[in-house]
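Structure, all two chains, one model.
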Amino acid sequence: MGMAGLLQISYKIGIGKNREEDNRLKVKQWTKYILGKLIKLISLLVAVSILSFVLVSNSPIDPVQSYIGADMNLVSPEQRGNIAAYWGLHDSVVQQFLNWGKNILSGDLGTSLLYRTPVAEVIQERFLASLALMSLAWVFSGVFGFILGIIAGMRQGTWLDKVIKMYCYVIASTPAFWLGLLLLMVFSVWLGWLPIGLGSPAGILTGEVTFMQRIQHLILPAVTLSVVGVSNIALHTRQKLIDILDKEFIRYARAKGEAGFRLFWRHGFRNTMVPAISIHFASFGELFGGAVLAEQVFSYPGLGQAVVQAGLGGDVPLLLGIVLFTTIFVYIGNLLADLLYRVIDPRIRRGTLS
Amino acid sequence: MISNIRSLSLRQRALLTITLSVLFLLSIAIGSFLFGEDELAIQMQNKNSSPSLSHWFGTDWLGRDMFARTVDGLALSLGVGLLASSISVVIALILSLLTMWSEWADRIVTWFIDLFLSVPHLVLLILISFSLGGGFKGVVLGLAFTHWPSLTRILRGEILQMKTAEYVGISKQLGKSKWWVARYHFLPHLIPQLFVGFLLMFPHAILHEASITFLGFGLPAEQPAIGVILSESMRYLSVGMWWLAFFPGLSLLLMVGIFDRLGHSLQKLLDPFQGQKR
């Protein structure tokens, strides 16, 4: 409909006497919306950091020991005490939290014990690798899930619908890492088409890894994630389409002689598209969970692998950093889902304006 | 047989599904008791054999029968899932009943739901397991403390709806306490929801248990958990011992799928509105 049409409507129903006032109202609405979302994010981040800090500081895993690792015998108790004092482990938990929080606010997430580099750098580098994997999987699972859902919905009750539904139920019960193992067995071990693991081939400097080699190592984890992600969106789209096909306007369209793809394209497509994209955005948390497992199976050097190593190796700064980072990641997904409704669906948009 | 199934009503079909699934789950539980030390013992003369009639799922690098290990692993998952889901359901019930107390209580509970849903589920599980030092306790509590939000949301919605019902208003006017209303009006209505919610939580809990164990945070390596079996099998994939991963994973899939169907069938029986959906 566009801006002009919207303004015309709001003009007709008497909101805003002129264009300027209407625009001002709009800016005010959006500022309020963005401010509200920002406050929500900040309150969530504060709560998540308190929660995770309390959890981590209760852990029986000794950070000094995991820092020293195998050299435990070479380090005297006094030196250990010095390290603990240097990290402020002798302070109270509240004091530790405040110190940590102060550093975070100044942009310092601390230093990773495992990688011996700043946490922010580790997260940045690892996340870019994961992002390549997750965005590929996100797009593929979204497109295929949507198409499958549409086919099943349009052919409800037929064998095609039953096959698709069955497939979705089976996929929903499939452990993602097991699927990864199966793909690894078939394509890497038996057929030998694709490499067995690692984000880049072993024994080659990172600078010399070609683009093709990177792609090769990306294929299997991305396929795993895509296959697993299809189920939710397909079932949701199918149900949505069935609900819509039950509506009056569809009956009217059918009475006019529309059927099949034409009917779907003109009356079903946009109605199913928006909720489908929206729930797909809202699934960032599960997407990351799947990435953790896929990266572990294929030893892909992404953020998911880093969080597992951080947890197993007692790397507290990295673990906390990743928890906060993924919280923001999930939040952005939910925000985009919400925004999409606002921007695309004129009914909600108008509701916020009046 | 097939024509017989077709002639059954939806309700009868749901009952049939429930009976079959319960039988399957019972056989896992009983099976794990039948397999004792003998099958799980190390038998080096039988090591690395592929699936055969005497060893259905083959044997591993120590000659242990994979079928016995798998059944034991499934029973273990069943136990962990049962424990974790029960705790989770209790948390969900308590929190959802809290929402009727006052507007503030409601806001706090919703805020907690948002909080727990804001961190990726697996990351939260890793965090909790880390804080408890891993192991059995870490998994059970981790699963229990992360699976309640969605059910709480459903129960809260139910309570919000019931709050406006006339009989609740009349009870209040008669001077009944909030506790009385919760006990005699809300609870009986919530029990079917709780039960279905419990069953539908099960598959998630089991899958998450296997995942987190696979990653190394969950059950200790000496337990025959499916996650442990699968993570061990990774070392033997490149030598072509496919059965180490294939059958245990397939069995897990089967169990999770059956629980899912069981939950949905029960939902059809208990909730006629859901039953109409196809």
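The mean pLDDT of chain B is 82.
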